[in-house]
Structures are given as C-alpha cells and as structure tokens.
Amino acid sequence: MHPIKVENPLNLITQKCTLGCPILDHLLDGGVPCNSITELVAESGCGKTQLCLQLLLCAQLPASRGGLGAASFYIHSEFPFPLRRLRQLSLSFPHPTAMTPWTASLSMQSEFDNKPSDLKRRSSLFFGIAGKLKSIAKRFSLAIVVTNQVVDLIDSDGANGLQVGNFGYLYSSGRRVCPALGLSWANCINSRLFLSRCKEAGTIATSGSEDQSCGELGVMMMKRRMQVVFAPHLPESSCEFVIVREGVFGVGS
Ligand SMILES: Nc1ncnc2c1ncn2[C@@H]1O[C@H](COP(=O)(O)OP(=O)(O)OP(=O)(O)O)[C@@H](O)[C@H]1O
C-alpha cells in the first residue's frame, strides 16, 4: 500500500511570491502567499526593511523566476526612504519595471492611550485596516506584507504574555519580546514571521555583511533567525539568515 500525499488545498490555488532565496522560499513553502496578509515582526535592525525591499523587487520578476510579474508598491512610514539600498539590491534582482515607493504617515500607536475607550477605538481601526487590505488582496491577487515592531516583555502574566502561535516566548538580542501591536492586531493578519538576532562569538562566514564587530570575545558575528510564528499553511519552522550587500539570504543547516 502506498501512502497518500495530501496536499494543502490552499497551496494548490495560492500564487506565491519568491523571497529571492531558495532557502527562505523553502521555509515559506514557495514564498509569500497572495490573497492574504503576511506580517514581519522584529526589533529594530533585524531586517524587516531589507526583506521588504527585496520583496518589492522580487514581486516584479516573471512567474518563471518565482515572481508575480507585476508592479509592486511600498508604503514607508519613516523618512528617508532607503532608495540607495533599493538601487543596490536591484543589481541582485534585476529587470524591475518602474518603482514608485510611497511614504505615508501611519502612526497608529502614539495616537492612542491605554484607556479602554482608546483601546476599543484602536482595535476597530485595526480591523478596519486589515479588512480593507484583505479585500484588496483578494480582489487583485496581491501579496501583502506588513511590518510590526516589538516591545520588551516585562510582565509575562499580562495580556502580552499570552501565547499566540507556535512559540511560548519570542527572544531577540537576548531579551524576551512581544509584538508591539497586540492581540487584536494578531487576529487581523493571516501569517506572522518573527525575525530575531543574537550576537555570538565565531568566525565570519559571509562577505559584505555589516554585522561584524570586535567585542571582548574577539570577532563577533550576528546570527539572525526567521521563525514561522503562525501561518495557516505552514508548520512550526525556522531558519537562519544573513543580510549581505546582495540581499537577505537563508543559511542552510
Ligand atoms: N548594504 C548592506 N549590506 C549589508 N548589510 C546591510 C546593508 N544594509 C543594511 N544591512 C543590514 O541590515 C540591518 C538593518 O536592517 P533593517 O533596516 O531591515 O532593519 P529593520 O528591522 O527594518 O529596522 P527598523 O525597525 O529600525 O526600521 C543593518 O543593521 C545591517 O546589518
């Protein structure tokens, strides 16, 4: 008797956008899925922007190269937009069509207090934004990627300590952290990927990395990891990655 391989029905119909690296694509079972919202959550400097810039270029690649063969759109909420880095990355992921990065001010956190009425308003704003994004994604078959910061987790008994997804706790730079946009936002997105980093003593294996420094232990290198926190089509999994001049790439184990 032969075992029957059951394909996830979502994978059969959902187009995916390559991340520009076979190892990262393998982690995501082909790339970032269309028709849904994928979140990258990480502390500052972990690679959210780098990955988004890379996806901006990859989406424009033809389907034969894993792209969506379509235009891409980046809403950047901080100034300045990293145009130089985008140009540098475009040498690694060539053939982009015209790109129009847009900047927009989306300061959702600072406009709200911790009062119940503000929290309620904030939640309904999240649901409104996510609902619009999802309907646009479905209507035009878009792959939507959003980013989220983290905050240090101090009170693990509070709401922030609730486990959402595969991991009890998320660690980055040796600290316990949790996504800055809380539980209601977690219910608005379809998939969450956590990027983290830690410094370890070791030898430098990659060239062109800005992650090298000399500490008391000698040469330090930055270890970065991408973890699937939750996704309807993916198991709990993770892989290491590096950021180099040419882009963001997974590291095989
Ligand atoms: N040209 C480059 N070559 C190699 N590494 C680079 C290059 N540009 C940026 N990096 C790496 O990317 C890191 C910054 O990543 P990125 O800007 O994506 O962080 P982020 O998660 O978006 O942070 P923030 O939340 O503050 O915007 C730098 O610390 C550096 O290690």
From TrEMBL:
Q: What does the record list as coiled-coil region(s)?
A: none
A molecular function (GO) held by this record is: ATP-dependent DNA damage sensor activity
| Stretches assigned to the RecA family profile domain | 13-94
Which domain of life does the UniProt lineage start with? Answer: Eukaryota
Q: Alphabetically, which GO biological process terms does the record hold?
A: double-strand break repair via synthesis-dependent strand annealing; resolution of mitotic recombination intermediates; t-circle formation; telomere maintenance via recombination
Task: Please name the Gene3D superfamilies in this protein's record.
Answer: P-loop containing nucleotide triphosphate hydrolases
| Gene Ontology CC terms | Rad51C-XRCC3 complex; replication fork
Q: Which residues cross the membrane?
A: none
Q: One Pfam family from the UniProt entry?
A: Rad51
Name of the protein described by the UniProt record:
DNA repair protein XRCC3
Q: Can you name the source organism?
A: Cinnamomum micranthum f. kanehirae
Classification lineage: Eukaryota, Viridiplantae, Streptophyta, Embryophyta, Tracheophyta
